[in-house]
Design goal:
Distance between the termini: 61 Å
Number of helices: 9
Bound molecules: flavin-adenine dinucleotide
Oligomer: single chain
Keywords: FAD, Flavoprotein, NAD, NADP, Oxidoreductase, Redox-active center
CATH superfamily of the largest domain: FAD/NAD(P)-binding domain
Catalytic activity: 2 monodehydro-L-ascorbate radical + NADH + H(+) = 2 L-ascorbate + NAD(+)
Shape: globular
EC number: 1.6.5.4
CATH topology of the largest domain: FAD/NAD(P)-binding domain
CATH class of the largest domain: Alpha Beta
GO molecular function: monodehydroascorbate reductase (NADH) activity
Function: Catalyzes the conversion of monodehydroascorbate to ascorbate, oxidizing NADH in the process.
Mean pLDDT: 97
Structural class: alpha/beta
Largest sheet: 7 strands, mixed
Low-confidence stretches: none
Radius of gyration: 23 Å
CATH architecture of the largest domain: 3-Layer(bba) Sandwich
Length: 434
């Protein structure tokens, strides 16, 4: 079987891979030195588009429109770009074995890839209901969303089940974005999740009340405090009903499940140090194996601002960690020092006409400010998280670019705020004056 050898190999062809390739090109890479190996069939793209504009009934985003790095306002890297730079894109190729001591990867087809430096950028995979043996969960038209192939299958089903019924299982950001996308496509949407409110890992009850109210106004039915325990299908094997734990049964032509992800680290088990379910790295994304780096969703890295290890599954970190790793690799080669990664957590989501951003850490006390009436023509509201008398996190719905920058600055600088009532009253003005 064929063997190929590269100076640098990026394993995975997602967001982090694309931004790493751009940084390699910036820092200088010789033709033939760098390869990206991906099980997807397309060049790296901005994954968040899959749950947003990709699903629009009109004017939907399609490749090549959203290849990296357009999501951060950068140059769009088309497959030709990689060719011009002499970067090999090895697509539709799944790596099934990694032998880190031997600097070797092996594909499902049996090809061997050798490297001097490996960047692991395998991202996450979805948690499936079949993983827990949920009865009937393998029925047709039950979808998960991670890769472009998943999105294409969902788009086909949306077309085939016009004006049908959709059930969204899960109340995280995938659930919320998919609920909106299916509603915009004129499906009759119900959402089911066990928690008392949506996005409980980030949203306070006050924040969530706005989104649940807004979704209800759009005609989306929200069923909380219960879970899907089984699915019934017709003689074609297509899903027809969702059984809930509380005994209710929902009709469904399409089910979308968004119940979380898991970092793809299994290939490296026992070969590299792990922490918090991810691959442990230093502030330069170097792992316990000096020739191996890990970036994006799979990396557990020191978050300098909070002086603790974290794993972050967001696109902004995927981009920045990839750039940091490449700077560090090239810095070592050139004998130049590179600053430690100093990341401010940033997460965003968009659905319907809504758009929110969050910066910092969601720990401590919270205050809610602004107009959070879901009926308002232009709602704008937010929250601050306050720990040890300092504002450490900030959330804003409906903010302008400047206002979003202002809340980012607050989360970074952590100004004092002793009086929570005063902070509530001041609201966004507190951030804008910092
Ligand atoms: P990925 O982009 O997932 O890339 C991993 C790549 O590795 C994939 O190409 C995969 O096929 C490949 N791969 C994995 N294993 C192998 C193997 N064994 N062999 C070969 N190739 C392999 N974040 C936000 O902050 N805001 C959002 O609005 C947002 N929306 C999202 C919407 C969706 C639908 C999804 C799925 C994620 C969203 N995210 C969002 C999260 C964000 O996209 C991820 O954090 C980011 O893509 C992580 O980048 P990554 O490069 O680490 O992994």
């Amino acid at each position: 079987m064929a063997e190929k050898s590269f100076k640098y190999v990026i394993l995975g062809g997602g967001v982090a891979a694309g931004y790493a390739a751009r940084e390699f090109a910036k820092q200088g890479v010789q033709p033939g030195e760098l390869a990206i190996i991906s099980k997807e069939a397309v060049a790296p793209y901005e994954r968040p588009a899959l749950s947003k504009a990709y699903l629009f009934p009109e004017g939907a985003a399609r490749l090549p429109g959203f290849h990296v790095c357009v999501g951060s306002g950068g140059e769009r890297l088309l497959p030709e770009w990689y060719k011009e730079k002499g970067i090999e894109l090895i697509l539709s190729t799944e790596i099934v074995k990694a032998d880190l001591p031997a600097n070797t990867l092996v594909s499902a087809a049996g090809e061997t890839f050798k490297y001097q430096i490996l960047i692991i950028a395998t991202g996450s995979t979805v948690i499936k209901l079949t993983d827990f043996g949920v009865q009937g969960a393998d029925a047709k038209n039950i979808f998960y969303l991670r890769e472009i192939d998943d999105a294409d299958k969902l788009v086909e089903a949306i077309k085939a089940k016009k004006n049908g019924k959709a059930v969204i299982v899960g109340g995280g950001y995938i659930g919320l974005e998919l609920g909106a996308a299916l509603k915009i496509n004129n499906l009759d949407v119900s959402m089911v999740y066990p928690e008392p409110w949506c996005m409980p890992r980030l949203f306070t009850s006050g924040i969530a009340a706005f989104y649940e109210g807004y979704y209800a106004n759009k005609g989306i039915k929200i069923i909380k405090g219960t879970v899907a325990v089984g699915f019934n299908s017709d003689s074609n094997g297509e899903v027809k009903e969702v059984q809930l734990k509380d005994g209710r049964v929902l009709e469904a032509d399409i089910v979308v499940v968004g119940v979380g992800g898991r970092p793809l680290t299994a290939l490296f088990k026992g070969q590299v140090e792990e922490e918090m379910g991810g691959i442990k790295t230093d502030a330069f994304f170097k792992t316990s194996v000096p020739t191996v780096y890990a970036v994006g969703d799979v990396a557990t890295f020191p978050l300098k601002l909070y002086n603790e290890l974290r794993r972050v599954e967001h696109v902004d970190h995927a981009r920045k960690s990839a750039e940091q790793a490449v700077k560090a690799i090239k810095g070592l080669e050139k004998g130049q020092s590179v600053d430690e990664y100093d990341y401010l957590p940033y997460f965003y989501s968009r659905s319907f006409d809504l758009a929110w951003q969050f910066y910092g850490d969601n720990v401590g006390d919270t205050v809610l400010f602004g107009d959070n009436n879901p009926q308002s023509p232009k709602p704008k509201f937010g929250s601050y998280w306050i720990k040890d008398g300092k504002v450490v996190g900030a959330f804003l719905e409906g903010g302008s670019a400047e206002e979003n920058q202002a809340i980012a600055k607050v989360a970074k600088l952590q100004p004092k705020a002793e009086n929570l009532d005063a902070l509530t009253k001041e609201g966004l003005a507190f951030a804008c004056k910092i």
